Amino acid sequence: MKSFKIQVRVQFKDGILDPQAEAIQSALKKLQFKSVQNVRCDKAFLISLEAESETAAQDLGRKMANQLLANVVMENFEVEVVT
Amino acid sequence: MKSFKIQVRVQFKDGILDPQAEAIQSALKKLQFKSVQNVRCDKAFLISLEAESETAAQDLGRKMANQLLANVVMENFEVEVVT
Q: What is the DSSP string of B36-49?
């Protein structure tokens, strides 16, 4: 078993309204950042774990995302091995 | 003015307790992901904006992070130009 660090990045699917992003965008406008056109808020989970191989680590990340980290109805996710 | 997309990535400073990350870690253990050693939850803001140059876009991102996106007492941030 080797140690890996994976990143699971979760973002809303296209067309899903993100009230947090909208609130941030309007707050930025009020703070005079007039040139802002769009804001998106993603979540990034950095997970240190032990696995047999890089592929196994990535598979574990995908399972975690499906079971817990992402709401797959509304969100997409990407898993990458960082180190 | 050109269009840029910047990413402001916000994470807790070392030593700051992150209850969300702890809850996720314990939930992953309960779901039988026994090999998980550590979990960190970052926020990533993707902002489309107009600026004179890449440097100006990055500067704007830093200002936004200091004023709104990050709590600089507890959090660090990094700004990068994505496109």
A: EEEEEEEEEEEEEE
